[in-house]
Amino acid sequence: MINGFLQQKRAAPQVLVENKISFAGPEVELSIYDTFEQASRVALKSDQLLFCGMVTGKKVMHSVDDYEAAFYPHESFIMAPNQAVEIDFPEAKIHQPTTCLAIEISTDRVQTIANQLQMRAPISKSYGDWQYQQSLVHTHHNEQTQALLERMVHIFTENEVDRNCLIDLAISELVIRLLRFQTRDFLLCHSEKDPEFNGLNSALQYIKSHLNEALNIDALCRQACMSRSKFFYQFKIHFGCTPMAFQQQIRIKQAAKLIAQGQQITQVCFSLGYHSASHFSRLFKQVYGMSPTDYKLRHLSS
Q: Backbone phi, then psi, for 16, in 5-degree steps?
């Protein structure tokens, strides 16, 4: 795992707060930040897009618009170029550092990848084009993103003959995942504001209002006014997955929200249409990297 590689690569820390080890690549830099003592309001800013992935410990991020959020392992915090934040390190200790990966990606590279997506998988013109939205993003890693970050640590820290090519491919994948995440959230917000805007908006609202039911594809196609084949094609272009996988993502996200608010885990499980608590727990752990019980304890103790 990531932490094992970092233990091997760390030297004796030069500083106790945000000790930095960096590895350069084409149009990108990966840095490992270790903090060995509690600190507060440590400034962070970059002139490039900055993708931060937590490895160990806890940070509390503060932005200039008074946004505040706790930041844990298996989560990412993505900052727009020239966006400033301040960071608290409430749990850092000399033998238990708070550790984070930070990947700086050039804005030109991000735009190039957005243009490639627009050419190869264009979304409906009524929504606009693929583009990076310069906003603060706080998200949880799914299994694929977590595996990608672990692979990137391998690639950056090892001197393989194809290192630069592998870095290039990994960065493209990371940016595509960010663009898909932002586009999904944009489409969800758009469908909430105007569910009758088009067939896809109507179908999204149907999925969200029937989270506790098995997905009825025929009903979705009627909502979207599309044939079955066209609906599946359009859905996958816009969301990168099938409607069933999308419903699963929304269910788990809603479950996490309710559990963090203190609701009973079994109640949340069955209210969202899961018929087995153990199956729900396995799915939850795949997305959030911990059991629903541990997730609840983390948020209730924050």
A: -95, -20
